[in-house]
Design a protein that fits this description.
single chain, about 260 residues, alpha/beta, 9 helices, globular, binds S-adenosylmethionine
Length: about 260
């Protein structure tokens, strides 16, 4: 989900420790500038249809931007991230949230703890995605809802930069998968897809520019951008999911 690239490269056969160190360096060099600004985050909570007082876990929370948005919505946020630099930034940025260093593949939380789980711009970086998704499933309540933003491998940019120029798994071990690939992975690991949206960030920026950089009134829901091209060509997908077999929520709940 980064907005800019960094000059230090990771080899494709990097270890998990190398990835953690790559992120530590990136957060030391760029801090919050590595990521989108704070106002890009509430929309994920809007799509999830969060309710005040609920427990939310943000997996791979970085410096805590989503945690801050969750706190503003009166949730009880918890974050976990591989990078100790991310965690130290998050502790300062959102002192009221519980944050800890850890690997998504081995979450130190009891079964069924969380009502909502987010994981943004990160699943494609995990070494063992299946294991992480099963862990996220385990720590979530029976009727929990999930918001995962993941990178699409079927774009021209990905094909050229990552595959032809052999950049796959460089820069924080970033990878990608197709729309069908992600759906299959989520279904295999116990999730049911309730909705798939395009990444909202481009349209959020455009609306802001057209408003003359006036901020969106955060007390009101933001419009949800629909794809102009077929969804399969989006740069990133936002998935809203539930556990397989759990009852679905009315669609209107997350779209307004
Ligand atoms: C692109 S950043 C996204 C940060 C945050 N989700 C956001 O959108 O603001 C990716 C994050 O994934 C974390 N990460 C990578 N692999 C991880 C793993 N196996 N377990 C936990 N966090 C991980 C990195 O430390 C980094 O903070």
């Amino acid at each position: 989900m980064g907005t800019s690239s960094t000059t230090s490269e990771l080899s494709p056969d990097a270890s998990q420790r190398d990835v953690a160190q790559w992120f530590n360096r990136t957060y030391v060099e760029k801090g919050f500038g590595y990521l989108r600004p704070q106002h890009a985050y509430p929309i994920f909570l809007q799509l999830l249809g969060v309710t005040p007082g609920s427990k939310l876990l943000d997996v791979a929370c970085g410096p805590g931007l989503l945690l801050r948005a969750a706190l503003d919505k009166k949730l009880e946020p918890t974050g976990v991230d591989l990078s100790k630099e991310a965690i130290s930034l998050a502790k300062r940025y959102v002192p009221a949230a519980e944050v800890k260093e850890g690997n998504a593949q081995q979450l130190e939380f009891a079964d069924g703890t969380f009502d909502f789980v987010t994981c943004l711009g990160s699943i494609e970086r995990f070494f063992d995605r299946e294991k992480a998704l099963r862990e996220i499933h385990r720590v979530a309540a029976r009727d929990a809802r999930f918001c995962f933003m993941v990178r699409n491998s079927a774009t021209l940019v990905w094909t050229v930069w990552r595959r032809w120029l052999r950049q796959q798994n460089h820069q924080g071990h970033q990878d990608a998968a197709s729309l069908e690939g992600w759906i299959e992975l989520f279904q295999q690991t116990g999730y049911e897809v309730d909705g798939v949206y395009i990444d909202q960030w481009f349209r959020q920026k455009l609306r802001r520019a057209l408003r003359g950089f006036r901020a969106h009134d955060m007390s009101r829901p933001e419009p949800i951008a629909r794809p102009l091209l077929p969804l399969r060509y989006a740069n990133e997908f936002i998935f809203i999911l539930r556990k397989s077999g759990a009852s679905s929520w009315p669609k209107s709940q997350n779209e307004n």
